[in-house]
Design goal:
The protein has two domains: 9-244, Aldolase class I (TIM Barrel, Alpha-Beta Barrel), CATH 3.20.20; 271-355, Ribonuclease E, catalytic domain (Hypothetical Protein Ychn, Chain: A, 3-Layer(aba) Sandwich). Helices cover 38% and strands 18% of the residues. The chain is built from 15 helices and 13 strands. α7 (174-186) packs parallel to α9 and α9 (219-235) packs across α11.
């Protein structure tokens, strides 16, 4: 996995569904962001000023981010006004740059020309899936080729490329989402976000859920799929900067969340699984003859190793019984490693193919195992 580089502080400004040509089947940005309407300039300035309170030296940079809509789908004048407003903060030295999320089919030469002269650092595209049937089922209105082309254009202009993808979409499968991950990795993005599909009130997906036409992934299956993608991107040195939606009081209250694998610490659940897999990997290697086991991890990874309510601890204790288990924090280790009785293991040591062998058969993997 890539080294944990300092990440920028993101100061988000939510523009719910602004600039979208239609509403994708899974989307209800008002429910996700908790924002009901397009904010006026005063509210945007207030949101940025409020977000700047979290600036710290621990962060590499501070960026204003326009999220929750299709930024380059907005009217040209509106794009300019938002960029002008954000640039004032950059000119004042309070912010280092701008980023935004947009649909892949908005990335064309004319729209990219609009950005010239503005301090835009990164562009995030909502790819969601690289499978044409899944995109059609979601009513996305763009193709996998749109995403490939957008990625090439963004990189050619020198912007950092972020890619957002989802698992558990209508017509999606574990195989299709993993194949999407392989295609996304081939775009060489600078970072990736992975979201399990949730069912929000007011979305087309909610209607399909009510009629039984759509069934969301369970939490366990969603964690497993995202884990495999996380390992895949890690193998390619592509940072996964978010797994699962940011927790919020609104999501936790489930006011607008009808169904789906929401967990306030979804990314932590994924990492717990990876740490358990690493311990199992070493134990299964036959290199540890003793039954008394000592595990060492960086202090910041102790909770990932122990797992939610100590479930990893209990699983490992059952596996080594009647041996004893000791867990020790060790600051000399990197945060993604575990040492089992002196045997080092990192996520890159896990065999994604065998990790996946307990799931459904994946015939396509025969063709792409080299890139995994
Ligand atoms: S998913 Fe993105 S493009 Fe689709 S409606 Fe929501 S904000 Fe717009």
């Amino acid at each position: 996995m890539p080294a944990a580089a300092k990440r920028p502080l993101i100061v988000p400004v939510f523009l719910p569904q602004a600039g979208c040509p239609h509403r994708c089947a899974f989307c209800n940005q008002n429910a996700i962001t908790g924002i009901a309407a397009f904010p006026d300039p005063a509210s945007i300035q207030a949101a940025i000023t409020s977000g700047l309170r979290f600036r710290s030296r621990k962060r590499a940079a501070t960026q204003i981010a326009f999220y929750g809509g299709n930024f380059l789908g907005l009217a040209v004048e509106r794009i300019r006004r938002l960029l002008d407003l954000a640039t004032i903060f950059v000119d004042q030295g309070l912010v280092d740059g701008i980023r935004f999320s947009t649909r892949p089919d908005t990335i064309d030469a004319a729209r990219l020309d609009l950005l010239a002269g503005y301090p835009v650092a990164a562009i995030e595209i909502g790819v969601q899936s690289m499978h044409a049937a899944v995109l059609r089922a979601c009513r996305r209105g763009h193709t996998p080729e749109d995403s490939r082309r957008a990625a090439r254009r963004i990189k050619a202009r020198g912007y950092l490329l972020g890619v957002q993808m989802m698992v558990g979409l209508p017509d999606d499968t574990a195989q299709r989402s993993f194949a999407s991950g392989l295609e996304i990795a081939a775009m060489e993005p600078d970072f990736v976000r992975i979201y399990p599909t949730l069912v929000f009130r007011g979305s087309r997906l909610a209607k399909w859920f009510e009629t039984g036409a759509y069934t969301p992934l369970g939490l366990e299956a969603a964690v497993r799929q995202v884990k495999h993608l996380c390992l895949l991107f890690g193998r390619q040195n592509i940072p996964v900067i978010r797994m699962g939606l940011q927790a919020s009081a609104q999501l936790d209250a489930r006011t607008d969340l009808v169904a789906g694998p929401y967990h306030p610490a979804f990314g932590h659940l994924v990492w717990e699984e990876i740490f358990l897999d690493m311990v199992r990997h070493v134990l299964a290697s036959g290199k540890i003859p003793e039954t008394d086991i000592e595990l060492r991890v960086h202090p910041r990874s102790v909770s990932r190793l122990r797992g939610y309510k100590n479930r990893n601890t209990q699983t490992i204790m059952r596996a080594i019984a009647p041996g004893n288990l000791t867990m020790l924090p060790d600051e000399s280790l990197d945060t993604e490693a575990v040492v089992v009785n002196g045997q080092y293991c990192r996520p890159a040591d896990l065999d994604i193919l065998s990790e996946r062998s307990s799931g459904p058969q994946m015939p396509f993997l025969k063709n792409c195992s080299e890139s995994v």
